[in-house]
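Table S2 (continued). Query chain:
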Amino acid sequence: MSTQTGPALDTPSRGREFVPGPNGLPLLGNLPQFGKNPLAFFELLRGRGDMVRWRFGRNRCVFISDPDCIGELLTETERTFDQPALGVAFRAVLGNGLIVARGRDWRRKRSLVQPSVRPKQVKSYAATMASSAVELADAWSDGQRVDIKREMAALTQKIAVRTIFGVDTPADSEAMGRAMDVAQLEIGKEFAGIGALLPDWVPTPGRARIKKAAAVIDSEVGRVVARHRDGETERPDLLSRLLTAVDESGERLSDEEIRDETVTLYIGGHETTSSTLVWAWYLLSRNPRVRAALTEELDRVLGDREPGFEDYAQLTYAQAVVKETLRLFPTIWLITGVAKEGARLGGQPIEEGTRVWSSQWSTHRDARWFPEPEEFRPERWDPEDGDEIHEYAWFPFGGGPRVCLGTRFAMVESVLILAVLARRFELDVEPGVIEPVPSLTLQPDRDVLATVRAR
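Corresponding output:
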């Protein structure tokens, strides 16, 4: 598999000129269509062209589908594109963390957080990832019926609590998990509904629920931070590294900043990985050929032992399964930016204040960049014989200067968990189509029930 920086394969671009989107309503614009089914709406826009105008309420918007333009948006963020103002629900959970921060504040926070998730640090967390997965595998038995969504959430919560907070108290993960479930739901509702257009001061039942959930998150994080500050021994967890990090001027993160970055890391290390694994088991259950190829690699590379970080590089098919899962069901399904003065995309000027949107869901399923886009085919990611894939046709972790810092953490975690569990078991997911629901991450629309089969 190779990566290009120009147009993918020999497929001609449809041109880089603005085309009109579907007609909207007064005041609301295209919000009703978007809110009803954002993923289908983005596919509708992609069918109109590569640069489509539409309206989110009164806000001028452009939806882009061409990977070159997507690359420009991602790489020009912080220069000619700004982060958009996000809703009350989003801000209540993430505060002003790295995902939300702008300009100098963003650069400072990135410099403080980045050392905590460098490859050397991820390597040190790999043993915790694998051992936590082994604990789950030991608890499963042949013929057992499980809810994969619940099992993967509990597992990645445990790993997040151990690697980020350095604790192993069930109450920590349970309280945070319940609060994050509420946050997921309310962020999705507000983003796709009329709440997205309401002023911050307007009270709604959803905003009351998100504030209550955020208070739980604040309390749990505050309790663990206080425990770390009182401790005398040096800890290897992410939170301890954040507490001791200093910027160029010798300043440390404030308590509020620690809270925001800890929650950001928690979401990245738990919510996104959990969702990815659920979709991976679903796809593997529906594709026996791929499941057989995965188990063949696991038997060949691991034999009868559990995987460790040193095995990650050799588990190329397992990596491909995760990448292909992220192509079909990208946990982060949307990126946006707001044009600054002088912004351009595809050679076209973008009026200042225009909100530019792009969707991983839509682009990842475009036949121009991925032949047979609906097919679950990990072989397209083969390092030697795979497809030629445009650099920005696949962007589950974003890209450019604001690329997700937890990319390697998420990939290593997903592959090691998959390796531990798939080496011992096959999961037969119950029949029926499971639909994706776009909220903070892309979630299944119902419980994902499966029967555990010992290999």
